Amino acid sequence: MLDRLNQAMEDIERQLTEVVDVAALARTAATSEYHLRRMFSALAGMPLSEYVRRRRLTLAGAEVLADREPLLEIAVRYGYGSGEAFARAFRAMHGVGPGEARRDGAALVSQARLSFRLTVEGSSSMRYRVVDKPDFTVVGPMARVPLVHAGPNQSIIDFVRGIAPGTMEALAKLSDQEPHGIVSVCDDMDPGRAEGTELDYYQGVVTAARDPRALPGGSAVLAVPAGTWAVFATSGPAPEAIQYLWRDVFMEWFPANPYRSRPGPEILRTTMSADGADADAELWLPVEREQG
């Protein structure tokens, strides 16, 4: 998998002055476009589109400083329809405009070419299982919140604090299948996982219940079709154990197993210790087997 992903990175370099064909990159990586975007974001720490933009502006910056071509020609070569659009993007990355950089010989920012490799440490093993699950329903309060990659998500914290008293207790009685109990569910996310893009966040339960009359007031309902799920478990200090679980799934498990992520909600069940220092967590991710 990583060899194919690195070949896709080589293909990106050849397309930096063209329209990058993400569907073709996914074929090179022998996976789906959705999984390629998801995998890249998890491994690189930025969306694929952001990496392409930064690589283009890195090469454009070198050409600006070389002072051999008009700035507009450089802008058009790297996909910008006007000098103004190029100048805005250039300044956002490099901190100076292209004219100023050329005139003063300013120091610019460089986005290095990425390649991926699997580091095998052997210090721990990952606990997982694969489950074929019939259709089910997620029920609970829902809010549209921004995606935050690092640190606490204040929008989620405020949302959970604002849930009416007694709501979660009533919902817990509807939990009738795995994952049991109160869960956090993220759905309708941007495939590139760009910082600040929005997602649907549910605090609720997994259930077969669909009758609105049986649901606590204010509950949203998410119908989830039947499919295959990879279930990962971890225990340890909170929140580090959960953060490391997400990292290890995409850096270690996916490259070593014949599965890829597919569109669908991502479900996290967390049980805290009495003192709040440790957590048992179970992460459910929608997957499908790689073809061929």
Summary of the model, kept short:
The protein is α+β, with helices and mostly antiparallel strands and 292 residues long. The protein has helices at 2-14, 22-28, 33-44, 48-66, 71-77, 83-94, 98-104, 154-161, 167-172, 240-256; strands at 127-133, 136-140, 142-146, 183-187, 198-207, 220-224, 227-237, 259-261, 266-272, 278-289. The chain contains ten helices and ten strands.
Q: If you had to describe this structure to a student in words, what would you say it looks like?
A:
The longest helix has 19 residues, at 48-66. Strands 1, 2, 3, 4, 5, 6, 7, 8, 9 and 10 form a ten-stranded antiparallel sheet that branches. Strand 9 and strand 10 form a beta hairpin. It is built from ten helices and ten strands. The relative contact order is 0.14. The mean pLDDT is 88. The chain is α+β, with helices and mostly antiparallel strands and 292 residues long.
